[in-house]
Amino acid sequence: MPKKYGVKEKDLVVSHILHLLLTGKLRSGDRVDRNEIALGLGVSRVPIQEALVQLEHDGIVSTRYHRGAFVERFDEATVLEHHELDGLLNGIASARAATNPTPRILGQLDTLMRSLRTAKDSRAFTDLAAEYRRTVNDEYAGPRLHATIRASHNLIPRVFWTTYQNGRDDMLPFYEDETSAIHRRDPEAARAACVDRSYLMAQTMLAELFRRRVFTPPDDISRVVPGPLQVIPDADTICGEASLAL
């Protein structure tokens, strides 16, 4: 595989392992084959080890002395948990923004909202949504919260949403709610908008993983929802046709 210049080799390995997980080529308990990765990506064992250290820290793999690295539990509940954490963590920063919104931040968010409303395709919307999150987090999240949010993104790959055709229609209402909450200084509503957005993202992603048979669809998806996440009306059908790329 040709090298991608401008991308750290460690990050390339992390993305590769996550891709193997999200396409069902690696499953819970599988051993990560370092030699195969080194050969396939054309990298040395050093960035592979660095990637495994990061993935172990993030709960994706575990290493066993003299035995190698193995995939941790990876199932519906794992995917939902990553999204739940993402919603809760971003909700902390958003609630802080609503507690103390500055005119500068409000102006930046209003500008981003105008662009989000008029985004022409999924990629443009995803890029703008990421900029929205950076704007809030850069201002209101400290280094530790920033790092934890980044770790929660592992199982929410960007390519998933740049190719999802309904992304704008599905996600825009949550950004509208969040921005409105920040304007009216309502931290709980801002937090709730982040949690609800992440929950719908989890349902959408699981729909594709079920469709691709990475996971076997359960009879009742509600049994794998971790914690008291609010169920969004009209969003409980998760096994229909989807259009996501992994």
From TrEMBL:
Entry-linked Pfam families: FCD, GntR
Entry superkingdom: Bacteria
SUPFAM superfamilies, sorted: GntR ligand-binding domain-like (SSF48008), Winged helix' DNA-binding domain (SSF46785)
Domain HTH gntR-type: 7-74
Keywords: DNA-binding, Transcription, Transcription regulation
Gene Ontology MF term list: DNA binding; DNA-binding transcription factor activity
Protein name: GntR family transcriptional regulator
Organism: Mycobacterium mantenii
